[in-house]
Design a protein that fits this description.
single chain; 231 residues; mainly alpha; disordered N terminus
């Protein structure tokens, strides 16, 4: 170690003075660059703040209000109007299009998918539902379960089965999981895959015996075993 470094370690006051002098020297030499950089940082902060306060927040409020009106139509079973809107209310499709980057716009995709399912348009339902994403396990599970329903309508049970299983896994609760597992089992039966159906019904009976699906599991298991010649 050099002598001057050794001296600084043993003289803390002197070390502080040297450090301060080095900082002062650096600032003096790079004053112009620091001023420009500092201005850029301040400008970026102001732009970010302005965007959030003057654009993002008002748009979120606007989108929420539009979504609320469309939800009222949906609740009143005016599914087509809720989806496409009318002279007074924006429909879910328009809300998703105009406010897609907002939370309400994202949720509008989910509602649009459910509307399409109700109107017998499964392919459009899948497209809308796939545009929706959520950190909420309940909603995310319903999304994949609804996509599975759409594939059932499209007479594509193999795809439906995989999505029901995905929905059951994501849900991970005593209400939705057995519900989607049973849908998966019935879809397996549809393909005459009674081995997989039996496994799923037995899983329901073992892990979700207190659910509505669990109470019916013994009957479903007996049916699958009969089909497999295991009576």
């Amino acid at each position: 170690m050099a002598n001057n470094e050794f001296d600084l370690l043993n003289e803390p006051v002197k070390a502080v003075e040297v450090g301060y002098n080095r900082i002062e020297s650096f600032v003096e030499k790079n004053k112009r660059i620091l001023l420009i950089g500092g201005g850029a940082v301040v400008g970026l902060v102001l732009l970010t703040f302005g965007y959030k306060e003057l654009i993002q927040k008002p748009m979120e409020v606007e989108a929420q209000e539009a979504l609320y009106k469309a939800q009222n139509l949906f609740a009143a079973d005016s599914v087509k109007s809720a989806l496409n809107g009318n002279a007074e209310v924006l429909g879910f499709l328009d809300i998703a299009d105009e406010y897609g980057w907002t939370k309400a716009g994202n949720l509008a995709n989910y509602y649009a998918g459910i509307c399409y399912l109700d109107l017998g348009q499964p392919q459009e339902a899948i497209e809308s539902l796939e545009s929706f994403s959520s950190n909420d396990g309940l909603l995310e599970a319903n999304k994949w379960g609804s996509i599975a329903d759409a594939f059932i309508e499209l007479k594509q049970p193999e795809e439906a089965l995989s999505y029901y299983l995905k929905a059951a896994k994501i849900a991970d609760n005593d209400l939705q999981t057995p519900f989607f597992l049973k849908k998966a089992a019935l879809t397996a039966e549809m393909q005459e895959d009674f081995d997989q159906a039996l496994d799923l019904f037995e899983q329901i009976k073992k892990d979700y015996s207190q659910s509505a699906e669990g109470y019916e599991a013994a009957r479903d298991i007996a049916y699958c075993k009969a089909k497999l010649g295991q009576e």
